[in-house]
Amino acid sequence: MAEDLIRVVNLKMHFPLQKGLLANLFTQEKRYVRAVDGVSFSIRKGEVLGLVGESGSGKTTTGRLILRLLAPTAGEVLYKDRSIYSYSKKDMEKLREKMQVIFQDPYASLSPRMSIGKAISHPLRIHGLADKRGAQVKTLSIMEKVGLSPASFLYRKYPHQLSGGQRQRVVIARALVTSPDFVVADEPIAMADVSVRAMILELMIELKHEFDLTYLFITHDLATCKYICDHVAIMYLGKLVEIGPLNEVFKHPVHPYTATLLDAVPVPDPKYRRTHPMPKGEIPSPINPPAGCSFHPRCPIAEPRCQTIEPALVEVGQEHRVACLVKVRAGAV
Amino acid sequence: MNTHTMLEIQDLKVQFPINIGTVRAVDGVSMNLTRGEVMGLVGESGCGKSTLGFSILRLLRPPGMIVEGKILFHDRDIVKMSKRELLSLRGVKIAMIFQDPLTSLNPLFSIGDHFVETLSTHEKGISRKTALERAERMLESLGIAPERLNEYPHQMSGGMRQRIMIGLGLIMNPDLLIADEPTTALDVIVEAQFLDLLNDLRKKFDLTIILITHNLGNVAQLADRITVMYGGTIAEVGPAQSIFDAPLHPYTQGLLASIPTIKLDQPKLHTMPGSPPDLVNPPFGCVFHPRCPSVMDICTQQRPLTFLKNSHLVSCWLYR
C-alpha cells in the first residue's frame, strides 16, 4: 500500500467574528465562525480523495488550510510526514511547486490582460524553473497534453477568446506546469456545462495517471465523485461525518446525512421516486452550531443523547469511519 | 388553436445585434403549452432557453429584440402588446422566478413589504392589512411560519428566499409560471425540497409551468413534456418518460449520457466532443453537426426539418 502523501491532523479554523465598536467595548466574549472544527484524514500517494459537503460545510476552507493559504487555529497538515506550517517562507515557496490548486471559476482565476501562454508559463518563471526559451517549450508541451491544441496558435490568445471549457484547461495546465505531485481541485467543474464537465473530469483522470498525481477533489456533488475519487469524506458544519472507500460509502452509507445526500442526487428517470423524504430545514450557522451531533436537528433517527454527546469517528469497516451515535452503537452497520 | 392550448409560440426569432455581428439567440422556435402541464425546457448555457423565457414576458434587455414570430397567450399575441397591456400580463397572468433569489429581493424591504407592494400594484386600493393576510395564507402553503413576514431577506436562508420568490410569483394567481433555473443557487438537499414543493404547488394552484434548467435530472421528477434546445433551436420535444427512455436526437442522447449518476454500474461518463456553437456565426446546416456522431452530408448543407417520430418532434435528418 502506498504511503500517505498528505496527513491532516485535528485541523481547526475558527474565524473571529467582526463586532461593532460598542460591542467590543462592552463585552469580553469573542464569537467565532467554526468553519473547520477538528478534521483529520490522510491521502495516499496516487489517490483521489473527494471532500463533499454543502455550502458552508467548510470544505473549501479545509482545502485552503492544506495549501497553507490560511493559517489554522489549531492542528497540523503533514506533507510527506513534515508539517507544512513548520516551513520557512522560502521553503514554502519551493513547496508550492509541488502543491498546486485549481479553482472553480476559470474566468476569475486568469488575468484578462495576460495571454494564455504567458499565464501558463508564469509559474515556471516565478519559481525560476526555466529560462524564457525553456518555459515556452514546456508550456507548449503541457498545452497539448491538456488538449489546448494547436498550442502554438492558442499560445497568444487571451482568456476572453476561449470557451469556458478551454479556460478551465488553461487553469489545469498552469497548475501542472511546475510538475506538482499534489493538486487541490476546488469544484473544478461546477461552472461548466454538462457536456464540458465530462471532458474536464476525463482529462483530470488522464493527467493523474500520466503525471502520477494525488488529488483532493472538493465538490458539493456526490455523483461526480464516482468518476474520479477512490475515497470520499463527507463534511457537515466543519466536521467529517463519514469517510471511506467510495464503493463502500456509496453502497452502504451509514451516516443519515450521507444517505440523504445520496438520495438528493437527481435521478434522470421520471419513474423514479425517492425512498426517504428529504430532511426539513437547511445547514445551520457555524457560528452557533447545534450542541452534540451537529446534524441532530435535521436527523430522521436522532435520539435525545444526540443533543448532548458529540459523536467521534468510529471504524465500521475497512478504512470506513462514521460519526453517528445511533448507527454505530446499534450495530446497524 | 386547440382550446386547451394556453401558449403557442410560432417561429420565434430573437437577436442581439452587437459590435461583432448579430447573436441569433433564438432562431426559429415553435412550441405550444397545454393548460396544466409542466414543460421542462432544457439545454446548456447559451442555447437560448432563458432568452426564450424572457421573450415570453417581453423582458429582453436591449439590444435583444424579437425580430420575427408570434407568442400567442390565450390567443393574443404578446409580441404586439402595448406597454399597458404588458403590465396587466406580467406578474398577474404570467409570473417568473429567477435563479438568484437574493438579487431578486429588495434588501430594504421586509418580506411582508414585498407582498404588499406586489398586491397593491395590481389590485388598486387593497389595504395593507388585507394584503398581509393574503401573504400569510401564501406563506402557509409554502411551509413558512407567518411571523417571518416581518423579517428581511438577509435573515433567511437560500432555500427560504427562493420559496418567498415563488410565493410572490403565485400571489396574483397566475395561469403560467416561468421558473428560470430556480434551484441552481441551492444546495442539493434544499434543491430536492424545493422541487417537491413545486410539485405540491402545481396541484394546489392548478399551475402551468415552464421549468428552465440545464439539469435534466431536475426535470425528470416534475415535467410532463421536455423540450431540448441547442444553439438557439429546438432539437427535440417529447413526453418526459419517453425522452429519458428513448431519446432520438443525437444531442439529447449525448446530454443524457453526460449526467453523473450515483449508480455504480456506469463507471465512465460520456463525453461530447467540441463545445456549444458560436451564435454569431452558427454552423451551416444543422447547428449540432460539428459535434454530432451520426453526421451525414445533408447535415452540413441544409437545416433539418422537424419530423414526428414515436410522439417526439425531432429536428434531425436521421428521421427523414
Give the topology.
The complex is a heterodimer of chains A (333) and B (320).
Chain A: E1 4-16, H1 21-26, E2 32-44, E3 48-52, H2 59-66, E4 74-79, E5 82-83, H3 89-96, E6 99-102, H4 106-109, H5 116-126, H6 132-145, H7 151-154, H8 164-176, E7 182-186, H9 194-211, E8 214-219, H10 222-228, E9 231-236, E10 239-245, H11 246-251, H12 256-264, E11 314-317, E12 320-322, H13 325-329
Parallel strand pairs in A: 3-8, 3-9, 6-7, 7-8
Antiparallel strand pairs in A: 1-2, 1-4, 4-5, 9-10, 10-12, 11-12
Helix pairs in contact in A: 5-6, 5-8, 6-8, 8-9
Chain B: E1 5-18, E2 21-34, E3 38-42, H1 49-56, E4 65-73, E5 76-77, H2 83-87, E6 94-97, H3 101-104, H4 111-122, H5 128-141, H6 158-170, E7 176-180, H7 188-205, E8 208-213, H8 216-220, E9 225-230, E10 233-239, H9 240-245, H10 250-257, E11 306-309, E12 312-315
Parallel strand pairs in B: 3-8, 3-9, 6-7, 7-8
Antiparallel strand pairs in B: 1-2, 1-4, 4-5, 9-10, 10-12, 11-12
Helix pairs in contact in B: 4-5, 6-7
Task: Please name the defining characteristics of this protein.
heterodimer, A: 333 residues, alpha/beta, Rossmann fold, eight-stranded mixed sheet, four-stranded antiparallel sheet, 13 helices, 22% strand, globular, B: 320 residues, 2 domains, 10 helices, 12 strands, 29% helix
